[in-house]
Design goal:
177 residues
């Protein structure tokens, strides 16, 4: 018989979160039931506290299963495992997409800044201005329109400060149509 080691609150929460805060056996969830962590392979039969051996169970299901081995994994547990695996893949794909978008935006902002620095070589964009371009102009305008606005601002304005303001005005007017 394996000695039982208490589960930390953090581990319990991670199991509940992974299992969408519902019993893996009957599907019930709070407030109608109290949730517990169940050892799929009971500790008394050699099971451990590994996350893969833990599942969310309501009080009644956990007591009903007791220390018996499951002859087969309940369908709801397998369905949840598949769903969680799919969510994990979607999350990875989403993070890759966000990273790719951010990289493209950074390249585009560098192109706009290069135009600006052709007119004002001693100046560069601060992070706040980069974020403004990223959130306001890149989603709403084509890169060529934004570059064109920077060329116009550079040609019309004597100072970098007035050029950035003029540039923003051109972009906002183009967005408003």
């Amino acid at each position: 018989m394996t000695n039982r080691k208490a589960l930390s609150k953090k581990v319990r929460f991670e199991v509940f979160k992974r299992d969408c805060f519902s019993c893996s056996y009957c599907g019930r969830s709070p407030p109608s039931v109290i949730l517990e962590c169940d050892h799929i392979d009971p500790v008394s039969k050699g099971g451990d506290n590994d996350l893969d051996n833990l599942t969310t169970a309501c009080f009644d299901c956990n007591r009903g299963k007791s220390n018996r081995l499951l002859e087969s994994i309940p369908k709801t547990v397998e369905e949840k495992r598949q769903l969680l695996a799919e969510k994990e893949e979607q999350l990875k794909a989403y993070k890759r997409l966000k990273k790719n978008i951010r990289s493209r935006q950074n390249r585009e902002i560098k192109k706009i800044e290069a135009i600006f620095q052709d007119y004002y070589p001693d100046y560069s964009f601060n992070e706040s201005f980069r974020n403004s371009i990223r959130t306001n102009f890149l989603p709403a305008l084509e890169l060529e329109e934004i570059e064109s606005a920077m060329y116009i601002a550079g040609q019309k304005c004597r100072t970098s400060n007035s050029a950035t303001k003029y540039f923003c005005g051109i972009c906002w007017n183009r967005i408003r149509g």
